[in-house]
Amino acid sequence: MTELRQALHRLGVETYGQGLVEITKPIKDWLSHLDIEDGLLTLFCRHTSASLLIQENADPDVCRDLEAFFARIAPEDGNLYVHNAEGPDDMPAHIRAALTQTQLSIPLHGGKLLLGTWQGVYLFEHRRAPHHREVVLHLIGE
Amino acid sequence: MTELRQALHRLGVETYGQGLVEITKPIKDWLSHLDIEDGLLTLFCRHTSASLLIQENADPDVCRDLEAFFARIAPEDGNLYVHNAEGPDDMPAHIRAALTQTQLSIPLHGGKLLLGTWQGVYLFEHRRAPHHREVVLHLIGE
Amino acid sequence: MTELRQALHRLGVETYGQGLVEITKPIKDWLSHLDIEDGLLTLFCRHTSASLLIQENADPDVCRDLEAFFARIAPEDGNLYVHNAEGPDDMPAHIRAALTQTQLSIPLHGGKLLLGTWQGVYLFEHRRAPHHREVVLHLIGE
Fold first, then answer.
1. Contacts of residue B105 in chain A, CB cutoff 8 Å?
2. pTM, to two decimals
3. What range does the record give for the signal peptide (chains A, B, C) (predicted)?
4. What share of chain A is helix, strand, coil (3-state, %, to 5)?
């Protein structure tokens, strides 16, 4: 007989301007209290100017180069956008969010996330100002 | 004992040329008939020239600026592509779909999708002609 | 009473330089042995320089044009990146992975994936050298 069950958590994340904030550890901390060995973890970002990304967590230069790439591809240039009322970084933020992920699902096996050796989970802040962000963690498993 | 169960629905969406069509309401309408309080909703777009996106639903200019961004980044220019037989907007449509989402999952709690305050769910049409699109809705929950 | 259960598999994929490798068939082969009719399949790529993509599998030119697009948008140009130690194709690979998918979920109904008529599932290799890649397949269903 199946013993599948669900768990839900709202993870608060503080950001400090544009760039990637690693959230792998708080996610693993939450999972470690659940006594669920095998299942599927889903992360959902409740914002349209921040997003989620799985990236290399070995060399911090990778995060800096990613930030620079997105600044190039979606520049702060008022001539490019109609939606400028919320600041020059708001429309680029929506574009950057559209190009990355609002949601990520990661399988869990033997109590461990099946991330690759170099993979870390990041919240990607796209606004210049610090923000309090919320990521919903949903787990289904047994 | 768990009472987890599944539900499936095929949502038809009419589009009218390139741009975003909000589908938050028909999704919520379907959920409201299911008597499932907590779970995970997955949306799957069955096309390679349309896609899914969660974006701000407060200011319609955001949708227009997003459409303009994707038109700039993947222009209709036959010199850039080998695959031109299905029309000048077909290969740009595949690129735009690759840069956004074919699938989205959103946690459900207390009978409500855990979307953020400003988040709406959109089908993103990438072809110039109107199309009938199909989005599969899959819910697992209790 | 629900009979929901889970299955997990690690699919090895050989790649031969930058480009798309279709993995629809090995995925369906695995599903065909499971005796699960309805559910949700999740694919997770355990790498930061390869990713997942659902694209048209009718005309191989689409795959070539996609590859060319990503080479244009994230060029191998050492002046653009700080992270160059792992080769000129490494940072572009991370960018290409960020712009596509690390994870995909596809509903299953009547024993069949609900892919659209022209949709195929691809592993997208972003490095020049051949690699052995691993995609985790997770199925929950009944």
1. 42, 44, 103, 105
2. 0.97
3. none
4. 25, 40, 35
